[in-house]
Amino acid sequence: MKVKLSSVVVLMVCLGSLAQTDPETKQKIRAEIATVEALLPKLADGGPGLYTLAADYSRLGDSGRALDLLKRCLLLDEGFNPNDDPAFQQLRQKSEFQSLSRRLSLRYPVVQKSHVVLKIPEKT
After folding, report:
1. Integer Cα distance of 60 and 27 in angstroms
2. Cα(93)–Cα(58) distance, rounded to whole angstroms?
3. pTM exceeding the 0.70 threshold for the entire prediction
4. Predicted pLDDT at 16
5. What is the CATH number of the domain that holds 59?
6. Listed residue (63, 62, 59) closest to 17, CA to CA
């Protein structure tokens, strides 16, 4: 039975990772990967977990694993878009990433004439 864990939990875990690649940061990223991989089978919605793992593997320089996870995430069609995410900077030169990027741009075009529909007040 899958436990419904909030996707926010997975994204909160990933907030601690930085784009730096010093040994201490790499160790933190590897720990984050272990945590997210352990949580992934329990998540009702795997998209955030897959995206987080893809970003982490990209930060570690494992572009093959990062692209595989990113493709799995994008196949879920949950609106994730890595185009402006600094975690994927190393992948931007790869033709496979560029192809994914083009498909995402067609699927989710930028809305230039948008307007605010709803504002939610911030709790203080």
Report:
1. 10
2. 13
3. yes
4. 41
5. 1.25.40
6. 59
